[in-house]
């Protein structure tokens, strides 16, 4: 065997054997004067990892005596720096080769197989033909990663409703044995089929959405069909291609999501209303009803979408009504409250509410509505309920802020009923519907037409008997008001009636509107397509129910679990140009008040103001007209209008619009305009010059800017005598 036993850089050898029958072991020293030189170390080390295997490569070392191609190599691999516990080079760290042999590797590359997960450190040395080892190369490392990343939070995916076609999902960042979290990638998939935990099935059959990295743990899934059920998952990858999968999450788009931050008092037998009582450009809320421990009436102030109980002291009522209206024409919202033997009118004085001590009977199980019955520019009151003499219905006229009984005879007064006013016949004065339960416990309804400021009982569609609730709305955008009603019959039902100009025709198909008792209904264009939709809640013969209808296409009850003994209202509480929904009532035995935010991606645009304003004066009567506004969503025939009259420029002291002209006509209340047609009539008792304008209101109750202000002058208020039959009218009828 060869070997440099005396370390003089040349090979000696040892001879062991038998010579002439004798065993010999002789070392022969090489006394050559030519010393071997140490080769240089390899360079440009590279590693390529494939699962548990690695291919290691380097460039050739060099030597003064041995040709580069004849050099061999020794490898050192360890799991710690300068370690050799995986592959030992049989050399010292300084490169001294412990065996007088060629290196084990006769090429510039080698494969190492079957490694486990971990970080490996490696170096290589050259071995020349004299078996001299070079110093080791610089140390390099490579990583073998056979473990999959571990999804965070047990693989939970959380869906966040974005709108009707988009959902944002979030997840907790994954962890990995080798990689830093920021180096992991996340692939998002969606499918109408649940592919479970099979990464292969998701990659082959799911729809790839996006890939994220650098600690981004959310993704937007778009282009979804409203109401369709989908499944989503996230596949996490490390830098070595190992994959983990998050739990599959069922997702579906919702038009509404509950505002869980809103902490309203829960009430049933309730009344709710939106109104910007503090005139700051966002809608506040009043809520009344029966709590789990008593009764309450509370006003919540809206500040940038956050609601705070104002602590304003008001009578606590249930089975009654709260309603905003500007009775004193100062363009802020006053308040009427009725129920539990209470009827109070409160004047808004810079956000404080003062009882005006109106002489109106306190009623129970009652309803009330504001409306300008006499077309004199101020709001009167219609009220119905149970009083000291039984069931009573009254009209109280507003004369300079004082309310006096009108003397109108209103037959068919009702308990636990409703009062609603509107100009259903488009003759420029408001008419009246009342309904509910009579003294015999039978549900019924009465329509009164306003004829020269007297109420005339009209024949009504017989199918409207047993009606317990009604609400006006122009669902077909033909400029006259239709009705949605709830009825208390053997099966309980609700129905839409179309106003055809001379009668109300039931629209039987295509809707199957259920819920007829102890409920409510509300119109509003919540999908911003320019026509009215509606929501209905109440008892059915089976259970409590809440149904949402896009015009006449039922969306079902999934978004709003069934309510009864409830009231509800539409309003854009977050000023994002779509209608949100407030519901208070009994939800499966739980007394609750819930605010649902509209997540629609389709936003409403405000209408344009009317044009070509004109007025004509005859004595104290002023006739107004204008041409229609226009709107991107609501057709011109579906717009309503809101008039403003003042005794000074931009004034409103004669007829308050309950809107803020200086902020582009923002509506203080969420209602249609009081005029369905392109004209109006007002009777004013005083001479002088007046300033007026009008705004358009669309089906989402958004107001246009007011039109360019016009003026008119009343010079003579003397009445024009004509032949007319007068009759005396009795005091309010009490039934």
UniProtKB/TrEMBL annotation:
Keywords carried by this UniProt record: Signal
One Pfam family, short name: FG-GAP_3
PROSITE patterns named among the record's database cross-references: FN3 (PS50853)
Annotated PANTHER family: ATP_GTP-BINDING PROTEIN (PTHR46580:SF4), SENSOR KINASE-RELATED (PTHR46580)
Classification via InterPro entries: FG-GAP, FN3_dom, FN3_sf, Ig-like_fold, Integrin_alpha_N
Species this chain originates from: Candidatus Magnetoglobus multicellularis str. Araruama
Residue intervals of the Fibronectin type-III domain: 150-260
Superkingdom of this protein's organism: Bacteria
Presence of the UniProt keyword Ribonucleoprotein in the record: no
UniProt-recorded name of the protein: Fibronectin type-III domain-containing protein
């Amino acid at each position: 065997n060869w070997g440099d036993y005396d370390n003089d850089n040349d090979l000696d050898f040892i001879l062991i054997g038998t010579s002439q029958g004798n065993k010999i072991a002789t070392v022969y020293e090489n006394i050559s004067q030519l010393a071997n030189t140490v080769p240089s170390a390899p360079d440009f080390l590279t590693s390529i990892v494939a699962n548990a295997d690695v291919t290691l490569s380097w460039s050739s070392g060099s030597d003064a005596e041995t040709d580069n191609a004849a050099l061999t190599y020794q490898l050192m691999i360890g799991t710690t720096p300068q370690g050799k516990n995986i592959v030992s080079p049989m050399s010292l760290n300084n490169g001294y080769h412990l065996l007088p042999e060629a290196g084990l590797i006769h090429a510039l590359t080698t494969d190492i197989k079957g490694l486990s997960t971990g970080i490996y450190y490696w170096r290589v040395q050259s071995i020349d033909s004299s078996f001299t080892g070079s110093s080791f190369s610089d140390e390099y490392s490579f990583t073998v990663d056979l473990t999959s990343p571990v999804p965070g939070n047990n693989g939970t995916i959380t869906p966040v409703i974005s709108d009707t076609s988009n959902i944002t999902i979030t997840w907790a960042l994954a962890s990995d044995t080798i990689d830093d979290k920021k180096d992991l990638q996340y692939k998002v998939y969606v499918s109408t089929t649940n592919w479970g935990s099979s990464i292969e099935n998701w990659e082959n059959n799911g729809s790839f959405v996006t890939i994220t990295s650098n600690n981004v743990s959310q993704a937007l899934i778009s282009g979804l069909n409203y109401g369709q059920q989908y499944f989503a998952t996230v596949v996490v990858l490390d830098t070595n291609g190992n994959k983990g999968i998050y739990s599959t999450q069922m997702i579906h788009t919702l038009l509404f999501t509950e505002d869980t931050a809103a902490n309203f008092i829960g009430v049933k037998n309730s009344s709710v209303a939106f109104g910007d009582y503090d005139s700051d450009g966002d809608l506040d809320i009043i809520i009344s009803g029966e709590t789990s421990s008593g009764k309450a009436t509370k006003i919540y102030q809206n500040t940038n979408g956050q609601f705070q109980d104002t602590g304003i002291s008001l009578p606590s009522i249930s089975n009654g009504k709260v309603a905003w209206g500007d009775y004193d024409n100062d363009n802020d919202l006053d308040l009427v409250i009725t129920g539990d033997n209470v009827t109070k009118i409160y004047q808004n004085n810079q956000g404080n509410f003062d009882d005006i001590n109106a002489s109106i009977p306190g009623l129970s199980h009652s309803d009330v509505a504001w409306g300008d019955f006499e077309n004199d520019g101020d709001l009167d009151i219609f009220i119905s309920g149970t009083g000291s003499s039984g069931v009573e219905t009254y009209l109280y006229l507003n004369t300079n802020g004082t309310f006096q009984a009108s003397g109108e005879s209103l037959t068919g007064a009702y308990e636990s009923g409703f009062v609603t006013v509107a100009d259903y016949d488009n003759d420029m004065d408001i008419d009246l519907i009342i309904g509910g339960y009579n003294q015999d416990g039978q549900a019924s309804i009465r329509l009164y037409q306003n004829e020269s400021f007297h109420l005339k009982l009209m024949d009504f569609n017989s199918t409207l008997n047993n009606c317990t609730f009604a609400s006006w709305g122009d669902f077909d955008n033909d400029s006259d008001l239709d009705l949605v009603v709830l009825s208390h019959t053997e099966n309980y039902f609700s129905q839409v009636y179309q106003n055809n100009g001379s009668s109300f025709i039931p629209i039987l198909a295509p809707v199957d509107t259920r819920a007829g008792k102890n409920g409510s209904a509300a119109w509003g264009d919540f999908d911003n397509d320019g026509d009215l939709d509606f929501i209905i809640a109440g008892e059915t013969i089976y259970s409590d129910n809440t149904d949402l209808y896009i015009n006449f296409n039922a969306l079902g009850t999934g978004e709003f679990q069934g309510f009864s003994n409830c009231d509800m209202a539409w309003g854009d509480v977050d000023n994002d140009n779509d209608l949100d929904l407030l519901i208070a009532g009994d939800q499966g035995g739980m007394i609750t008040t819930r605010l649902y935010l509209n997540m629609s991606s389709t936003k409403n645009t405000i209408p344009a103001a009317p044009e070509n304003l004109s007025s004509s004066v005859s004595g104290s009567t002023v006739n107004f007209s204008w041409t229609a506004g226009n709107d991107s969503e609501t057709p011109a025939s579906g717009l309503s209008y809101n008039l403003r009259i003042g005794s000074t420029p931009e004034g409103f002291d004669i007829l308050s619009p309950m809107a803020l002209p200086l902020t582009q006509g923002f509506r203080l209340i969420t209602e249609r305009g009081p005029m369905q047609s392109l004209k109006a009539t007002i009777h004013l008792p005083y001479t002088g010059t007046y300033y007026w304008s009008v705004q358009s209101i669309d089906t989402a109750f958004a107001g246009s800017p007011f039109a360019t202000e016009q003026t008119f002058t009343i010079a003579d208020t003397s009445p024009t005598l004509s032949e007319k039959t007068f009759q005396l009218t009795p005091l309010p009828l009490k039934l």
